[in-house]
Design a protein that fits this description.
Family (chains A, B): Belongs to the homoserine dehydrogenase family.
EC number (chains A, B): 1.1.1.3
CATH superfamily of the largest domain in chain A: Dihydrodipicolinate Reductase, domain 2
Radius of gyration of chain A: 25 Å
CATH architecture of the largest domain in chain A: 2-Layer Sandwich
Oligomer: homodimer
Pathway (chains A, B): Amino-acid biosynthesis; L-threonine biosynthesis; L-threonine from L-aspartate: step 3/5; Amino-acid biosynthesis; L-methionine biosynthesis via de novo pathway; L-homoserine from L-aspartate: step 3/3
Shape of chain A: elongated
Bound molecules: NADP nicotinamide-adenine-dinucleotide phosphate
Helix content of chain A: 25-40%
Keywords (chains A, B): Amino-acid biosynthesis, Methionine biosynthesis, NADP, Oxidoreductase, Sodium, Threonine biosynthesis
Function (chains A, B): Catalyzes the conversion of L-aspartate-beta-semialdehyde (L-Asa) to L-homoserine (L-Hse), the third step in the biosynthesis of threonine and methionine from aspartate.
Distance between the termini of chain A: 52 Å
Largest sheet of chain A: 11 strands, mixed
């Protein structure tokens, strides 16, 4: 090891991720110093409870409950506490005292990103957040740097491991949502309160971060349309399989062309929902708790980034990569590069989005019903691509009922949902079983 | 568009990649300026023949045959001529005159990388080469930055599109090597002289670049063990399929632990050869001319990067990403970050490498032959995992012959090849049909 300049590193949080970051910083100190061109001196670790057990073996004297004193004089501050406050206050304090900041805090960046990036820009500091979008998968640098000379058309991400694990097991084992969720909780794949995952909140935060980068546009979290997976049952999965699809919770970030004839601007759509995807699409083979981000760019074509989207030690890898980058920048000098949000494209509501759909209906099994349904779709500007009708042999339903699975051509979401309302009210439709978007082509 | 500082960009070469880079620089000038924080002024394009037809529509007045004058005063020089000279002279001239350099030239970097990086380091310039390792797939930044805090154990890359296309068609269509190669040439997927691709030279250059980055070690091209795919025939592919494998030309970059008991150092191995890979490994589903790089890291776990490994416009995306990075660095100030080669691990010859093997033999169909073969393997420290024996019903062979397909446990390459020599000389083996490594587990 060469003689290096020393950089003071302060760590806030020693939970699942922070305890691994601290352990790796200490264990690989020499190697990291060689790579960074500076020795990374861990000056302290702020926690709430000094006596709490830690997942890795760390020197007691590093721990403190006084985060603010730790930040003063640090060159690099790593925020791994999570939540909005006090994480935000500490991060701003770090930036304003001249440190570079590293964080994995997707909740914070998705809600207060612009304020934090502006503060960094004011003082020429840099905020690194590779771990905030897809855990260990390097996706921030590819979007921010590698694709900076290209134009991203669309991102489709499987960015939540818990929901992918649940949907994958439902698909491969024919199990029901509640059973798989209970098992996932027992195995530690899902939290005891699974809302953030299964209702798509976690994925929506990541979608906001990915879309901001890909489209050089500030994407507020409330502009992200969000639906979870709790309504996906065994029957929906089976019917998807039957049609050659698999269901994935997708974060879709899409560039929309200016409306033809209007002297308008491009816009973007950012949305999270369970969608059908063809079994031969690369995203269909992302199993278990793995994540993947599929990027369609104008020049580069289709790219996919695959790996672990969470996990303490996996996420620590991404955090440490950011720490090395921050150290190299300290050595090289110069100011930080501001987030590129100059495009600021308008974000359209979900009603303006165009996709394909699969509509599953239970209808009266009588002559003329298909014609009525087809007529309502056509009036609603929803064009039919495929229809499959099966008679349901269920005495409990009383009347003879048929199931219609309709695949549509691309339709506007607003037209589609108006049309589904009209179908539901038509008198011939007993039940709208499901309406799912089809992505990936 | 905001008012920006102007940076002078010189382009050397307007072939498959350069003509696309020039077109995109001009077409997206405003957008690129917003992202880079500087307007990128294309000051000229150096070519050999001013009158040659170009793939994109470019202003005639930009063209010149005087590359040297173009370089003088440029802030960013993009080298897309290919070959060693004069590319190397021009690149060094650019660096020494204070410009940042962008290149896609894998041949040059794999042979003269250290000299070029040293020159850049001397003057605080930066060399960007995202397009040199896997075309449009962002892999340089992930290895150099995102994984800088982790330890890469192994990389397995499908980094040559031509050979992947050939092997994939042989696999899916049962076609023979020569036929598919001829078709690939007709379709423009393979060059009229296919040596660089099918003999693994192109993949070896990329392997050297990837291993240098992953292991922070200078890897000279002649330290890369290289075998091509010309010996892979239909029978080999069929027998691989039968055993649940697919054959891919892999660039393998591997970290080897210090030998147990020796107070030694870790070492690395870099090799390119056709290998068997399980059909459920993510690399097995990389079809056609696509590329993918599979990375196993200690903390991050398994990652995969997938996309187009070549193509003029795809590669131009990676080049332009580098141009934007170079521009941002110019704006931000500071010196370039030197290549991290401080680990300088020893590179072991192929004989020291340990993998699994599949050995296919034609043996006399007589009692005791299997025992003899098993004895020779065991003496040679090659342990058998699976054996399959089939009788070959071929009158032309005269004597009754059986085919033995032996899967081994992990064995040392030197032991294996000595053992295969002994098998060949044993008197019971009629023919060593093939010896293939098995990778990916
Ligand atoms: N876990 C993952 O797989 C993963 C993946 C990607 C991103 N992330 C992100 O990484 C961040 C950290 O996640 P985590 O799973 O490591 O969280 P965690 O296990 O809950 O750990 C949080 C840590 O922060 C400390 N802390 C909380 N509030 C504090 C305060 N007011 N003052 C001082 N210390 C405080 C806690 O101290 P005590 O231990 O004393 O309570 C604990 O050590 C979050 O933003 C999360 O979204 C996590
Ligand atoms: N093509 C791909 O898909 C791909 C993918 C990854 C990386 N790369 C790398 O990118 C680089 C460029 O590849 P390419 O396919 O674009 O090559 P190319 O089509 O052969 O183009 C080479 C260009 O360089 C010019 N040139 C050659 N020697 C010159 C000299 N002495 N002075 C001035 N100009 C000279 C040529 O001028 P004229 O046109 O006047 O002859 C031509 O415009 C290579 O290093 C290659 O390995 C290519």
């Amino acid at each position: 090891m060469t003689d290096h300049r020393r950089l003071r590193v302060a760590l806030l949080g020693a939970g699942a991720v922070g305890s691994q970051v601290a352990a790796l910083l200490l264990k690989h100190a020499d190697e990291l110093a060689d790579r960074a061109g500076a020795s990374l001196e861990l000056v302290g670790i702020a926690v709430r409870d000094l006596d709490a057990p830690r997942e890795t073996d760390l020197p007691r004297e590093l721990f403190t409950t006084d985060a603010e004193s730790l930040i003063v004089g640090a060159d690099i501050v790593i925020e791994l506490m999570g939540g909005i406050e006090p994480a935000k206050t500490y991060l701003l304090q770090a930036i304003n005292s001249g440190a570079d900041a590293v964080t994995a805090n997707k909740a914070l960046l998705a809600t207060h990103g612009p304020e934090i990036f502006d503060a960094a820009d004011q003082v020429g500091a840099q905020v690194y957040y590779e771990a905030a979008a897809a855990g260990a998968i390097p996706i921030i640098r590819p979007l921010r740097d590698s694709l900076a000379g290209d134009r991203v058309r669309r991102i489709m991400g499987i960015v939540n491991g818990t929901t992918n694990y649940i949907l994958d097991r439902m698909d491969t084992e024919g199990a029901d949502f509640a059973d798989v969720l209970a098992q996932a909780q027992a195995l530690g794949y899902a939290e005891s309160d699974p809302t953030a995952d299964v209702e798509g909140y976690d994925a929506a935060q990541k979608a906001a971060i990915l879309a901001s980068l890909a489209f050089h546009t500030t994407v507020p979290l409330d502009a992200v349309h969000r639906e979870g997976i709790t309504s996906i049952d065994k029957a929906t999965i089976d019917s998807a399989r039957h049609a050659g699809y698999v269901i994935k919770l997708l974060a879709v970030c899409e560039r929309l062309d200016a409306e033809p004839g209007v002297d308008g601007q491009e816009s973007i759509s950012v949305r999270v929902y369970p969608a059908l995807i063809h079994r031969n699409h690369p995203l269909a083979s992302v199993h278990g708790a793995n994540n993947a981000v599929f990027v369609e760019a104008e020049a580069a074509g289709n790219l996919m980034f695959y790996g672990a989207g969470a996990g303490g030690v996996q996420t620590a890898s991404a955090v440490l990569g950011d720490v090395v980058s921050a150290a190299r920048r300290h050595i090289a000098g110069g100011v930080g590069v501001a987030e590129s949000t100059r495009a600021n494209l308008p974000i359209v509501p979900i009603g303006h989005v165009t996709t394909r759909y699969q509509i599953t209906l239970e209808v009266d099994d009588q002559p003329g019903v298909l014609a009525t349904v087809a007529g309502i779709l056509s009036e609603g500007r929803v064009s039919i691509a495929t229809v499959e009708q099966t008679v349901i042999d269920d005495a409990a339903l009383g009347v003879p009922v048929a199931r219609l699975v309709i695949g549509t051509h691309k339709a506007r979401e607003q037209d589609l949902s108006d049309t589904v309302d009209r179908l539901a009210a038509s008198g011939v439709v007993e039940r709208v079983v499901s309406v799912l978007r089809v992505e990936g082509d």
